[in-house]
């Protein structure tokens, strides 16, 4: 096992006796659990930066602190742009914040462990101990004993603190964690690192992670994303979550995002933004499934199959006079719809006794009505009895519970 703190002071020596000091080491982080060293960076006698590929290496002489190479003929000069596309252990990884996904811990890479294996030099672990700092300060003279804090690289994601540097070199394992846990890790990071972490995620996971972040952190992170990323995240977020985020932005930013979103999505968000935050309309969602009164169970199931691909609330299904009028006539549950005979009409199985909410009533009052009803959601209707949206039990809890608790509360129905 070799430490980067020691290896970085090695020199490159070829068969002809030419010698160059090692400047940095490039690795391919995306290739495997334990990334292999791909190239060595050094400066030639003219001061030009050069990259020597790993295949030129004959062996590493640990005793004499040198890397023996056949020749420097295969080395190529490297530009600043090309260097930015590489992942360098000394420049990018050492001292970077790292996420230990196995233990769900944020820490710092004070040193890196490398190991020769099957003709390759592999990055095996990150050392986060204070012993590693001593080892680096003394250039390996002290602190060379075994560390009690090695983190297996297989479970590590490193962060550079630059949301725009995500084009190369990440494991992308962070996307396997639940959004709530990712948001928890983000709260332990500086906001630029948190924004970088969010860029590693697929759009759907990133949208769910944004939705459960603390409000202040949510705005900080959102402001650091690329424009196309922000639009994609907003398009994927549930309508009420997207509106909650937009309300924290400037009017100019909100208008800009609404113009760039798909028309149907933008119209949904505008419908919610019409209502003040402190009203029932301000906490409702309009991501729900409506079914026309004259549909058969078979027709309703076909429609539902398409809607299940979206983020709609489907615990209850809302039966309306027609899709155009949206006059609420009743509700049915997903279970009742699935078990009913295909040829029956919706009006035969729906519940016509529906408790509803007024969109302009106080949000707290509406939230308590939902909680007292023990329902997963309650519909919100306008003056003409048209269905405007629903207030889910999740939204009700978020409205009346203390802020410190609502961040931890799981979202089940929204």
Q: Tell how many strands the DSSP assignment holds.
A: 20
Overall shape: it is elongated
In DSSP terms (H or I, runs of 4 or more residues), the helix count works out at 19
What are the low-pLDDT stretches, counting only 5+ consecutive residues below 50? none
Give average pLDDT, whole number: 88
Strand fraction: 15-25%
- The Rg value, from CA coordinates, equals 29 Å
**Structural class by sheet pairing and helices:** alpha+beta
Distance between the termini: 49 Å
Q: Summarize the amount of helix as a percent range.
A: 25-40%
Largest beta-sheet characterization: 8 strands, mixed
Quick take:
This protein is α+β, with helices and mostly antiparallel strands and 414 residues long. 35% of the residues lie in helices and 24% in strands.
Describe this protein's structure.
This protein is of the alpha+beta class. 35% of the residues lie in helices and 24% in strands. Strands 2, 3, 4, 5, 6, 7, 8 and 9 form an eight-stranded mixed β-sheet that branches. Strand 6 (57-61) and strand 7 form a beta hairpin. The model has no long low-confidence stretch (mean pLDDT 88).
Give keywords:
414 residues; alpha+beta; eight-stranded mixed sheet; four-stranded antiparallel sheet; 19 helices; 20 strands; 24% strand; elongated
List the helices and strands and how they pair.
Elements: E1 2-3, H1 4-7, E2 11-14, E3 19-27, E4 37-43, E5 49-53, E6 57-61, E7 66-69, E8 76-77, H2 80-84, E9 87-88, H3 89-93, E10 97-100, E11 105-108, E12 111-117, E13 120-127, H4 130-137, E14 150-152, E15 156-159, H5 179-187, H6 191-199, H7 203-211, H8 215-224, H9 227-236, H10 239-246, H11 251-260, H12 263-273, H13 280-283, E16 288-292, H14 297-307, E17 313-320, E18 328-333, H15 334-339, H16 346-349, H17 363-373, E19 377-381, E20 387-392, H18 393-400, H19 403-406
Parallel strand pairs: 2-7, 16-17
Antiparallel strand pairs: 1-12, 2-3, 3-4, 3-9, 4-5, 5-8, 6-7, 10-11, 10-15, 12-13, 13-14, 17-18, 19-20
């Amino acid at each position: 096992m070799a430490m980067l703190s020691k290896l970085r002071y090695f020199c490159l020596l070829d068969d002809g006796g030419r010698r160059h000091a090692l400047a940095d080491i490039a690795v391919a982080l995306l290739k495997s659990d334990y990334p292999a060293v791909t190239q060595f960076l050094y400066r030639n006698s003219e001061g030009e930066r050069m990259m020597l590929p790993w295949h030129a290496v004959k062996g590493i002489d640990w005793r004499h602190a040198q890397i023996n190479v056949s020749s420097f003929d295969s080395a190529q000069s490297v530009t600043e742009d090309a260097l930015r596309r590489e992942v360098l252990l000394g420049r990018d990884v050492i001292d970077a914040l790292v996420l230990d996904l196995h233990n769900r811990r944020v820490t710092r890479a004070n040193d890196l462990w490398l190991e020769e294996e099957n003709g390759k030099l592999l990055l095996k672990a990150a050392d986060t101990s204070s012993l590693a700092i001593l080892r680096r300060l003394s250039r390996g003279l002290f602190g060379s004993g075994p560390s009690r804090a090695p983190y297996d690289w297989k479970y590590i994601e490193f962060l550079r603190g630059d949301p725009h540097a995500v084009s190369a070199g990440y494991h992308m394992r962070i996307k396997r964690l639940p959004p709530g846990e990712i948001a928890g890790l983000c709260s332990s990071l500086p906001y630029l690192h948190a924004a970088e972490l969010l860029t590693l995620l697929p759009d759907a996971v990133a949208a769910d992670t944004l939705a459960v972040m603390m409000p202040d952190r949510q705005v900080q992170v959102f402001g650091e994303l690329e424009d196309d990323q922000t639009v994609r995240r907003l398009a994927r977020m549930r309508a009420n979550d997207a509106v909650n985020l937009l309300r924290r932005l400037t009017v100019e930013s909100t208008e800009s995002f609404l113009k760039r979103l798909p028309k149907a999505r933008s119209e949904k968000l505008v419908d919610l933004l019409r209502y003040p935050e402190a009203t029932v309309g301000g906490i409702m969602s309009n991501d729900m499934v409506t079914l026309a009164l004259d549909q058969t169970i078979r027709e309703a199931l076909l429609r539902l199959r398409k809607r299940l691909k979206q983020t709609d609330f489907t615990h209850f299904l809302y039966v309306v006079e027609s899709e155009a009028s949206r006059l609420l006539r009743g509700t049915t549950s997903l279970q009742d719809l699935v078990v009913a005979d295909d040829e029956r009409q919706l009006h035969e199985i729906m519940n016509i006794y529906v408790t509803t909410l007024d969109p302009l009533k106080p949000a707290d009052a509406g939230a308590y009505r939902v909680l007292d009803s023990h329902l997963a959601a309650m519909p919100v209707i306008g003056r003409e009895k048209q269905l405007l949206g629903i207030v889910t039990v999740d939204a009700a809890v978020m409205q009346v519970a203390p802020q410190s608790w609502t961040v931890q509360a799981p979202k089940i129905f929204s």
